[in-house]
Structures are given as structure tokens and as C-alpha cells.
Write a structure and sequence with these properties.
It is a single chain. This protein has 394 residues and is an alpha+beta fold. It folds into three domains: 1-48 and 146-215 and 356-394, 3-Layer(bba) Sandwich (FAD/NAD(P)-binding domain), CATH 3.50.50; 67-140, 2-Layer Sandwich (D-Amino Acid Oxidase, Chain A, domain 2), CATH 3.30.9; 217-350, 2-Layer Sandwich (D-Amino Acid Oxidase, Chain A, domain 2). It is built from nine helices and 20 strands. Helix 1 (11-23) runs parallel beside helix 5 and helix 8 crosses helix 9. Mean pLDDT is 91; it is low at 376-394.
Length: 394
């Protein structure tokens, strides 16, 4: 009998396991991961940005956790010797119609307690000599980090503090009883007093195994990236972002320096044909059928078809992808970019066809299901407060 069983070996699951051991020293904590190692999906397939929280609605969990979590993450990386850098970023308006949205981002950032500076073309040129824009915001607290290294450090700490780590152990059944949860995984049965579902791309399916009604479904969006050729990396000093569309939960193609010294461009955002499909040719009929049979997806598509069509066009046309980048850095040319590994985002879509824009955490009888965790965070949080039973360890 374990006190806590955590499903998912990405950064959310491993940080949750570590936090539980910190709060309850000596607790029996089990982590179950279906892959052969840690951070194999969203944690290991992203641009590695430490987000400041400048975009997010003041008072939201995303805004709170981005600021606090970013500060804690830097401290953690310094303690553990994990590669990171606080290099800052600029959010660049290239057209007059983007100015109201840029002002809105500035207001949100200041309300979220961040240092945000309005700058003009001259100041932008000093920061990013090759960027073009009519105005911009400077956000010094944004950084880059090796998230895989962070996840692996969490796993080491969980093991050192007495937690049990199981890779290659896929969960196939969950049964919640009066005072325990039974989990069928990897051909074995595990019993725990509390289950925490941090399965990311599979989180809604894991919740369904336990009979928990979530009111949503995970819709995968594949983000495609290109690397900037080494001889052109001088074009980007830090991070360069466009002004995002407030109706779409993606930030648009941008330039990101990496902890390895490279520069990534992207991502676009197209419907993934497989939840764990990182190539354009990866198709899983079960995953695709789930999306296409979900009425909420068609409601979403009807409202955002123009934006979606543009993302698909950029996916099919490298030239179109480059034109998007050239709005920010005009000197970038098609031959400067080479394809690199894509990522897949687990986007929660509610039954009414709206994207979940903040954390979504649902409770079962003896379980907590993290169904939308759009940015890194320092601690697990509960939508309706910590359940009373989580304090009643034997």
C-alpha cells in the first residue's frame, strides 16, 4: 500500500512526487511512467522557455505560477547545476493594428508584478539589431532552461527521498474504492490511498479509466520547428516573439535561443494526427477518430478556420513559414533553416468548443487529475482547495 501513486514521468508528475515527499517526509510515493525513461513527451519536446507570465490574466494560476515558479526554477537550476540562462525577450509589434494587443500585454504584465518596459524601434535595435518592429515590450525575466535536465533531477531526488520509480509501466485500469485506489499497470496491481494523474497527453484517458467525468478532451496540436543555421545565429541575441492572437492559445512563430547555443524558430500549431506523433506522417487512427468525432472540435474549427488554415499552410510550405519569421527578422532566408524535432501540445478542449486557458484540475473520490497544465509550475495546486483526505495519512 502506497500513500500516493503518481501517473506520468514528465516534469509535472516528477515535481508533484518530489513536492509530496517534501510535504510528507517518509510517505510511500510511487511514480508510474509508460515510457522507458523520463520526459519523453511534452517536457522533452518544447522550446525550453522559462515563461515570465506576461501574457496571462492577472490572478490566474498561470500568472501566479509563472512568476513564482520561474524564480524557484532558477534557484533550483543553480543548486543542481542545470543549464539555464535569464536572457530576456522582446515582444514585437510589426503592424499598427497590433498596438492595442501590445498595450494589453503590458498592462497584464505590470498587474502580474513583472518588470515590463515599453520600447520603440531605436531601443529595439539596440537589443536586437536585426529585428524589425514599430514598437515592442522588453521582458527581462524570461529565460531558457534544459527541462529534461530538470525532470531528471526531480527523478533523482524522488529516488533519494525513498520514492519508487517505475518506467515501462503503462496504466491500464483504475478502481477507486472507499479508502484506496487500485491501479493496474504493467501487468501488476498497485494500491494507494491517493492517486495523482499527471499523464499529460493521456490525462483525459487516465481519468476515464477511473470513471472520472472531466467535461473535456485532450486535442493534440503539433508544433513544428526549424533550427537556424549556425552561421546565422548572430541574427538573434535573446528571444524574439510576435504579438499573439488573443483568441488562440498559441504564441505564433518566434525565435528562441537554446541552452546548447542554437536558435530555434517556430512553432506553428497544427492538429496532431496522433497524440504522440512528432512527424507529419505519424497517424494513429484511434487518436484522429476521437478528435473528429468530438463535436466541440468542429465548434472550435468553425470559429477559427482562418487561423487554422494559415497554420496548416505554414506547415505545408516552408516559404510561408519563413515569411512569418521575416516579419520579425527580415534577414532570415529559407536556406537558413533546417527542420528539427517537433513537439505535441496536450490542449484541453471543453465540450462547448472553448480552449482551457488556465490549469484544469478535477477530483475523483480519491484522485486528483491534472488535465491542463499549460506552463511550468512550482507546486501542485487544486482548483477547489486541497481535499481534506490528503492530510489524513496514517
Amino acid at each position: 500500500m502506497y500513500d500516493f501513486a503518481v501517473i506520468g514521468g514528465g516534469i509535472v508528475g516528477l515535481s508533484t512526487a518530489r513536492a509530496l515527499l517534501e510535504r510528507y517526509p517518509g510517505a510511500g510515493v510511487l511514480v508510474l511512467e509508460k515510457e522507458a525513461g523520463w520526459a519523453r513527451h511534452q517536457t522533452g519536446h518544447n522550446s525550453g522557455v522559462i515563461h515570465s507570465g506576461v501574457y496571462y490574466k492577472p490572478g490566474s494560476l498561470k500568472a501566479r505560477f509563472s512568476k513564482e515558479g520561474g524564480e524557484r526554477l532558477v534557484e533550483f537550476c543553480q543548486e543542481q547545476g542545470i543549464s539555464h540562462e535569464i536572457c530576456g525577450k522582446v515582444i514585437v509589434a510589426t503592424e499598427p493594428e497590433e498596438m492595442p494587443r501590445l498595450r494589453n500585454i503590458y498592462e497584464r504584465g505590470t498587474k502580474n508584478g513583472l518588470e515590463v518596459e515599453k520600447i520603440g524601434p531605436k531601443e529595439l535595435e539596440e537589443l536586437e539589431p536585426h529585428a524589425a518592429g514599430i514598437a515592442a515590450l522588453k521582458v527581462p525575466s524570461t529565460g531558457i532552461v534544459d527541462f529534461v535536465g530538470v525532470a531528471e533531477a526531480f527523478a533523482r531526488m524522488v529516488a533519494e527521498e525513498g520514492g519508487e520509480l517505475r518506467t515501462g509501466t503503462e496504466v491500464t485500469g483504475i478502481s477507486e474504492n472507499g479508502d484506496e485506489v487500485e491501479v493496474r499497470a504493467g501487468g501488476e496491481n498497485f494500491r494507494a490511498r491517493v492517486l495523482v494523474n499527471c499523464a499529460g497527453l493521456q490525462s483525459d484517458r487516465v481519468a476515464a479509466l477511473g470513471g472520472v467525468e472531466t467535461g473535456m478532451k485532450i486535442v493534440p496540436f503539433r508544433g513544428e520547428y526549424y533550427d537556424l543555421e549556425p552561421e546565422k545565429r548572430y541574427l538573434v541575441k535573446s528571444l524574439i516573439y510576435p504579438v499573439p492572437d488573443p483568441n488562440f492559445p498559441f504564441l505564433g512563430v518566434h525565435f528562441t535561443r537554446t541552452t546548447e547555443g542554437g536558435v530555434e524558430t517556430g512553432p506553428n500549431a497544427v492538429l496532431g494526427l496522433a497524440r504522440e506523433g512528432y512527424k507529419k506522417t505519424d497517424i494513429r487512427l484511434k487518436d484522429l477518430a476521437e478528435v473528429l468525432s468530438y463535436p466541440a472540435f468542429w465548434r472550435l474549427a468553425a470559429r477559427n478556420w482562418r487561423t487554422g488554415a494559415g497554420e496548416v499552410f505554414r506547415s505545408l510550405s516552408k516559404n510561408a513559414f519563413v515569411r512569418g519569421l521575416q516579419k520579425l527578422v527580415p534577414e532570415v532566408e529559407e536556406d537558413d533553416l533546417v527542420p528539427t524535432e517537433a513537439g505535441v501540445r496536450a490542449q484541453a478542449l471543453m465540450k462547448d468548443g472553448t480552449f482551457v486557458d488556465d490549469f484544469l484540475i478535477v477530483e475523483g473520490k480519491r484522485s486528483v487529475h491534472v488535465l491542463n497544465a499549460p506552463r511550468r509550475r512550482p507546486r501542485p495546486a487544486y482548483r477547489s482547495g486541497r481535499p481534506s483526505w490528503i492530510e489524513s495519512r496514517p
